[in-house]
Write a structure and sequence with these properties.
heterodimer, A: alpha/beta, six-stranded mixed β-sheet, 9 helices, 19 strands, B: 19 helices, globular
Chain lengths: 338, 538
């Protein structure tokens, strides 16, 4: 097998990313494409302006919300529903990353490929946990593909989150929760809401609530930041990119919590001006990545994102043929959405 | 028996607290419950320096030795250990994350102390590795994290020895100033803690031959900055040598460098000269290359450095001399708390016949006079001027505004960044160390490396740029496309084999980013060579 096309015959690597010749579609292209298969609605996977999108109904709804002027065609594909073209079948599986996120399974003449997209196997409130679909080739993300990245169970994370908020209230401070706008913010709002703590959501997260409500979640204790700054007893939820902006800086008495897999690094305390680091991630940690490889039981693994090179080397050392996706097709570090 | 785990957990909680007062509180709680040798050892370990300053002991365990020991204990190969350390930004943190929290035997603080002392005596890397591995094997994750940080020489908990001094004062009910004075005089935060607990701080006396910290100066860029204070400053030439403290008593002399290393053997002629002077004293001054009755260039002095004992030819070729400019103790009386004027009087009284070389002191009234004096100092072959408040005490180990240094950059160069590296300490995890190059024909040749003079905000911004233009990674170092242009200032240029250009900038500092310039517009190697020639002539 030619090593320069490790995902053949299903996918090829092009300068702008992965491409599926059978469906004539780009996979999560970073720029507008004529046809895109989109694994989930985070902006670095779902670029605006595609002419045609194939994704789960939830992902398409989120995409429409984020791109209100979008006028392209949508091809909704539910989990487990199959599409076929030029002898290749395509099927979406839950990825556990965020609402609507999918792994993409390709099959043709007894050969198969599972593309994980961003995934996690841990249980969360709004995403169906990723399950392993056995495949011949596994193309897995490796954002946290080093053994230092082991994340605590969701229950423990939520307890620590509540404790941080309660301490803030005791000290008459506003808890500021730095969480990405799609997925983590809603998870945080649900966890806090259940504990009776009202949340003020940044617009990026607030505007997506209808899609989460359509999926059966409710946010009775949440309101939009536009309606006014956080009052005593309320927690403010904003994206990490706001950490050093007036939205946060103007809150004089605050206790900032950084919620991300990158919070494993103590240096992120300084990066985000954070009082508390909570490794709450929507990505698989290292043990999950290994478990997924083991469950999918592929003949070959191709790694992408983050520590792709190191994770491939670690798999190789365990006797599993693995290689990182050739560089150039690798997107830059996407720390924001981890 | 106090477990090391207790100290490690204290350090971890200190790192998590952001306010100085809360940090002190955590440290004080732990120190408050300890006595005797355990208190002494704990105070040192909490300060991040496992030995007393005067002991002159170092564990000297290199990064690779620690990484190999971590590999042995965690079962991860060395490459993975290295990748993890880079990803996390700190080897100690990474090792802590790689260990599982299975019950371990644990180490007591006294055991840690004994083992670190054994490490400092162990000469072979293999022996050091085995000793570190053995400690890690008995450690829980949090213990391993702080053991490795201790061995790395930096705890990164946002607390330094002065924070520990405050914690001793608070936790053991002592006076803050008395604690600071005692530590300065005995050179041991451990002994200080025990004395504070036992109410004996006042009994601690300054002892000669224990190295103490150097008082440091804050730079000024232009004379006008100090215009209003000028009459209050005593002014001396800023000598281009090696700063040293000279201790002398009963014919014995010891010279300690800024790093508190004993460098006496490197400068035998200074030791024998000072030994002939009357009385006992502690002097602050400068080791200078000396020729024809005046200071010679730093480049010549450099040939005397780094040798345990210089051979006779070098001794003959490059004689050195000690230029004294402060007196910190005389005849058993510490003078740290005395004003500069009083210390100067003591300094001048040591050798009325001029056998001790003492700096010349100038006084000026106006910035214009200061600038004239500056030019004269340069004429004399010195770097610039030192300004010392005549009413100031000697603040050992501190950089304050009572002493100011006035240097002017030689020139600035426009250079292009070729590699970046994560910084240490406060800037851990940020790409804050830049290697930069000048143009030589159609290629770029490195000429220096600078810790960024940019603000945290700028560094963070630049980090994003550098991540995008990274072309290769070698451990913590990223080679980047030559795109980002900086203006750097420096104190001097010297020949160097370290960089491809054949030159190295001395004390390079980043003046500003030059987004208006492209890599094609940076200065050339030719320009660098011309500046070098100008300096060499001086």
């Amino acid at each position: 097998m030619a090593t320069d096309e490790p995902l053949a015959p299903f996918l090829e690597t092009r300068p702008e990313g992965l491409y599926c010749p059978a469906f004539e579609a780009a996979i999560d292209p970073p720029v507008a494409a004529s046809r895109a298969i989109v694994s989930h609605a985070h902006s670095d996977h779902a670029a605006p302006g595609h002419e045609e999108i194939c994704a789960t109904p939830e992902t398409i709804a989120l995409y429409r919300r984020r791109n209100p002027d979008w006028a392209g065609r949508a091809r909704e594909l539910r989990y487990g529903e199959r599409l076929e073209r030029q002898g290749v079948t395509l099927e979406l599986y839950p990825a556990g990353h965020v609402l609507g996120s999918a792994q993409i399974f390709f099959e043709c003449d007894g050969r198969s490929l599972l593309f994980t997209g961003d995934f996690k196997r841990r249980v969360s409130r709004t995403a169906v946990p990723a399950a392993a679909r056995p495949a011949e080739i596994l193309a897995t993300e490796a954002t946290f593909g080093l053994p230092v990245f082991r994340f605590p169970p969701r229950k423990e994370i939520e307890e620590r989150l509540l404790a941080a908020c309660r301490r803030a209230f005791e000290e008459e401070k506003t808890p500021i929760l730095l969480a990405y706008g799609l997925g983590k913010s809603q998870e945080v709002a649900l966890a806090l809401g259940e504990a009776g703590i009202p949340t003020v959501l940044h617009g990026a997260a607030w505007k997506l609530l209808p899609e989460f409500e359509a999926a059966g979640h409710s946010f009775p204790l949440s309101r939009a930041y536009e309606t006014g700054p956080a009052k005593p007893g309320e927690a403010l939820v904003v994206p990490p990119s706001c950490a050093r902006t007036p939205v946060v800086r103007n809150v004089k008495r605050r206790r900032t919590v950084y919620l991300s897999g990158w919070a494993t690094r103590e240096a992120s305390r300084a990066d985000f001006d954070a009082d508390v680091l909570l490794p709450m991630s929507d990505h698989a940690d290292f043990p999950e990545l290994l478990q997924h490889v083991s469950d999918v039981a592929p003949r070959r693994v191709v790694t992408l994102h983050g520590y792709a090179r190191d994770f491939a080397r670690i798999l190789l050392a365990r006797g599993i043929p693995a290689e990182p996706l050739p560089s150039g097709t690798e997107r830059l570090a996407r720390e924001e959405e981890a | 028996m106090t477990e090391y785990r207790r100290l490690a957990e204290t350090l971890d909680s200190v790192a998590k607290e952001r306010g100085k007062l809360a940090k002190i509180e955590r440290l004080a709680e732990t120190l408050g419950g300890l006595v005797g040798e355990e208190l002494a050892v704990s105070a040192r370990l909490l300060s991040g320096s496992p030995f007393a300053e005067w002991e002159q002991a170092v564990t000297s365990v290199g990064w690779v030795t620690m990484a190999k020991a971590a590999s042995e204990v965690t079962g991860w190969d060395l490459e993975t250990i290295g990748a993890c350390a880079t990803a996390i930004g700190d080897l100690g943190e990474a090792v802590g994350l790689l260990l599982t929290d299975a019950p371990t035997e644990g180490l007591s603080v006294l055991e840690v102390d004994a083992r670190l002392r054994e490490l400092s005596r162990e000469r072979k890397a293999a022996g050091k590795q085995a000793a570190v591995a053995e400690m890690l094997r008995r450690s829980s994750p949090v213990e391993a994290k702080y053991l490795v940080k201790t061995l790395s020489g930096s705890l990164r908990i946002g607390a330094d020895v002065t924070t520990i001094e405050e914690a001793i004062a608070q936790g053991l009910g002592a006076d803050r100033e008395a604690v600071a004075r005692a530590r300065r005089d005995c050179g041991d935060i451990g002994e200080t803690a025990v004395a504070a607990r036992e109410g004996r701080l006042a009994e601690i006396r300054f002892r000669l031959f224990h190295p103490i910290g150097f008082m440091l100066a804050t730079p000024i860029e232009v004379a006008e900055e100090v215009a209003s204070e000028l009459p209050l400053f005593a002014i001396e030439d800023k000598f281009d040598g090696i700063r040293a403290h000279a201790h002398k008593s009963d014919g014995r002399v010891a010279l300690f460098s800024r790093t508190l290393d004993d460098v006496t053997a490197q400068f035998p002629e200074i030791a024998s000269e000072l030994a002939t002077l009357p009385g006992s004293f502690l002097l602050d001054g400068e080791v200078l290359a000396w020729r024809d009755g005046r200071p010679d260039s730093f480049f010549r002095l450099q040939r005397r450095l780094g040798r345990k004992a210089p051979d006779p030819e070098v001794l003959e070729e490059i004689p050195v001399a000690f230029m004294a400019y402060d007196c910190l103790a005389r005849e058993g009386r510490p003078l740290f708390e005395e004003a500069w004027t009083e210390r100067r009087r003591e300094l001048e009284a040591i050798s009325p016949d001029g056998a001790l070389r003492v700096s010349t002191v100038f006084r000026v009234e106006t910035p214009a006079e200061l600038d004239r004096l500056f030019d004269e100092a340069r004429e004399r072959g010195n770097e610039g001027l030192m300004l010392k408040r005549v009413d100031s005490t000697y603040q050992a180990g501190k950089r304050g505004r009572a002493w100011r240094k006035y240097k002017k950059a030689l020139a600035t160069l426009d250079v292009v960044v070729t590699a970046v590296q994560q910084g240490n300490g406060k800037r851990a995890g940020m790409l804050s160390d830049y290697t930069f190059a000048v143009k030589d024909g159609d290629r770029f040749v490195n000429i220096g490396k600078a810790y960024s003079g940019l603000t945290d905000e700028e560094i963070r911004l630049m980090g994003t740029v550098f991540r995008k233009i990274t072309v290769a990674r070698y451990g913590p170092v990223r080679a980047v496309e030559p795109q980002v242009v900086l203006e750097v200032s420096f104190d001097s240029i010297q020949k160097s084999t370290r960089h491809k250009s054949g030159f190295a900038l001395r004390f390079p500092r980043i003046v500003r980013l030059r987004p208006d310039k492209t890599a094609g517009e940076v200065d050339t190697l030719q320009t660098v060579a011309e500046i070098y020639e100008r300096i060499a002539e001086r």
